[in-house]
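Render this sequence as a predicted structure.
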Amino acid sequence: MTSPNDDSLHSVWRQGGDALKPLPLAEIKSRARVFDRAIGKRNRREYFAAAFVTLIFGLYALILPDMLLKIGSLLVIAGGFVMVWQLSRRTSRPDPGAEAADVRAYYRARLVTEERMLARVGLWYIGPLIPGLALFMAGLAGQFDSALGFAAFAAIPALVILGIWLLNRHAADKLRQQIARLDNGAEGEWK
């Protein structure tokens, strides 16, 4: 899971101080529309990934002989369901009525919701998958001739998980910068 608008966040980072100047109303409306589409696209991608994980680990639970692998697979599936439920519960949702009342407040609230979600991705996104993955990896440990071989194999998912966590923390930082930029604007300019 990554930020819903990685490209614009990257450009904010590259622009430096100028990127923190207040945004004009038309720019806020445009960014809110782009943000809506990006969040929807991200959520669809995450739901598809969860369905794929459910299919693969469901097959593992059926065909793999070791009980640790079966239980680990079922726990990964359960963790995926928790992750998808949390994503649907935590993600910001468009509200056209709220946008008409105060575009700045509407857009800011959506940014804050997404920032909080991304900043806590370790708890609700990665956390539910860890028990199943740990049990699954424990079931695979007997397949390796050496502890070093298993450690190298186990490092792959650990690095992927770390990368997901770091990318999402970085995206949350960029959203905090966008929120600060909105907060720096004059109140009367936004309505």
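Summary. The longest helix spans residues 25-63. Confidence is low (pLDDT under 50) at residues 186-191.
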